[in-house]
Design brief:
Elements (H helix, E strand, L loop, with lengths): L11 E7 L8 E7 L17 H14 L2 E7 L1 H7 L1 H14 L7 E5 L11 E4 L7 H22 L7 H4 L5 H10 L21
Parallel strand pairs: 1-4, 4-5
Antiparallel strand pairs: 1-2, 2-3
Helix pairs in contact: 1-4, 2-3
Length: about 200
Amino acid sequence: MLLQNYSQSLLEAGTDEAGRGCIAGPVTAAAVILPQGFLNEEINDSKKITSKIRYKLREIIEEKALTYRVTHLHEDTIEELNILHASIKAMTLSVEALDPKPEFLIIDGNRFTPIPSLPHQCIVKGDMKYLSLAAASILAKTYRDDYMDMIHEEFPMYNWKKNKGYPTKEHREAIAKYGPCKYHRMSFKLLPDQLKLEL
């Protein structure tokens, strides 16, 4: 069972993101405040549970949470800010949209830009330690997967339904064959050096 709270605050939010390592699609962040006493033995880091369980838990999280928000930041913003700053901005926007407002914030990872008047703590691998961070990771992952499934219909040749925009061998072979599209992050290394791409 993961821990309920890092701080003593009644309204402690957790925030996490999904999609930082992808070469296509948005970076997606979620922020969640769970109620005092909330317990669920299945909730864990989204990477450690199956897709079926993630979606089942998303329903429970959305039903039980005091508040939650999810934010997509797209390729143009990622290119403008870089992926680290886009990830932090997506988390910040999700946190700032919470209602009620949190009194304390925990962030999965080791980098964050402080939000004025909101104390916070970064926690490395926090989504394996705290319920709100694991819940945020599940929301971020499932909503991003839904988005990638949607744009897969527009560009099925990249098979985003399967790879979700990560740089798999199949995904890179499709880029080499068809070229990149509007959802690719052009500042990222889309292909290994041995595969040349004419732009």
